[in-house]
Design a protein that fits this description.
mainly alpha, 95% helix, 99 residues, 2 helices, rod-shaped
Length: 99
């Protein structure tokens, strides 16, 4: 009985030695995959969380856009006012000529 146990242990040891290159290959593949996943996670985080400099540029661009919008709104109000005055003058002039 002891001989059978020793033979089974020897066969298991030989099977382990035979499978060792495959185990090392799987281990290396898992290490490479883990490294790639870490790089991917860092790249994704960098893409999702812009740098403070980029945020500053976005804020500055937003301020400039807001200033341009305010400027154009003021110009539009001016033109509307001028058109209103023009209409009033036209109506007064045409109205007084028609009477």
């Amino acid at each position: 009985m002891i001989v059978v146990v020793c033979l089974v242990n020897a066969l298991l040891f030989l099977a382990l030695l035979w499978a060792l290159p495959a185990i090392w290959g799987v281990r290396e593949a898992l290490r490479i995959t883990a490294g790639l996943m870490t790089e991917w996670a860092e790249a994704a985080e960098a893409a999702l969380h812009p740098a403070p400099a980029a945020l500053g540029q976005l804020r500055q661009s937003l301020r400039q856009s807001r200033a341009r919008l305010t400027e154009w709104q003021q110009r539009l109000k001016l033109w509307r006012g001028l058109m209103g005055v023009g209409r009033w003058v036209w109506q007064q002039w045409i109205g007084s000529a028609a009477r």
